[in-house]
TrEMBL record:
Gene3D superfamilies found in the cross-reference section: HAD superfamily/HAD-like, Putative phosphatase, domain 2
Catalytic activity: beta-D-glucose 1-phosphate = beta-D-glucose 6-phosphate
Top-level lineage group: Bacteria
GO molecular function, a single term: metal ion binding
Record-linked InterPro entries: B-phosphoglucomutase_hydrolase, Beta-PGM-like, HAD-like_sf, HAD-SF_hydro_IA, HAD_sf, PGP-like_dom2
EC number(s) reported in the record: 5.4.2.6
Cofactor(s) annotated in UniProt: Mg(2+)
Protein name: Beta-phosphoglucomutase
Entry keywords, A to Z: Carbohydrate metabolism, Hydrolase, Isomerase, Magnesium, Metal-binding, Phosphoprotein
Entry similarity comment: Belongs to the HAD-like hydrolase superfamily. CbbY/CbbZ/Gph/YieH family.
Amino acid sequence: MTRLGLPDTVHACLFDMDGVLTRTATVHAAAWKETFDAFLSRRDGADFRPFDATDYDRYVDGMPRADGVRTFLASRGIHLPEGSEDDPPDRDTVHGLGNRKNALVLTKIQELGVEAFPGSVRYARAARDAGLRRAVVSSSANCQAVLAAAGIEDLFEVRIDGIVAAERHLPGKPHPDTFLAAAHDLGTPPGAAAVFEDALAGMEAGRAGAFGFVVGVNRADQAEELRRHGADVVVDDLAELLEEAP
């Protein structure tokens, strides 16, 4: 193992953004809750069952926005028209709800700013200094803006985000395609790349892509679930990998 806590065969690091590099996962969770609770309240009345943290972890965390809408609603036996990508945020379609969530996220980011996890920044800098290649892999269409707001955009050589995925027609997590694209753009085979994820869908993507190492970042008290879904190691903070390495 190197001082980065990775096998010596790993030459590239593929980082998820929300929840791994930045504290924006809580912002996304709050925006999803506000979006779905408003919809469910209109649909079912005062006795509606609210969207909760378990719903976030199981059905939307780490997924492309429209996939998250479909997956969560299907868990409640609800099916909406797809609509179109430019649907207004007050329209009860898959894309309408997704656009409502995105508008809420942007508002919350503007109001609250973006904070990067200090341990993750330390780790990304250590990876850079050790000569490892580095990419960000995120389902967010706002990835570049978030990285810039957090002041860490310059730490990564490649960005595969929601915009790039749409342009290249790449399916999102739990499919491995976005991570595979990042490894390809870095010139690194999957077996020589490590995936860093906090979402269960990201763990599945790491396992499905046959990557060399999968690091689960336990931000939601789900260490065992991360292991069951494909993590080779689970940490509460990426700095632990630096501290534990010889």
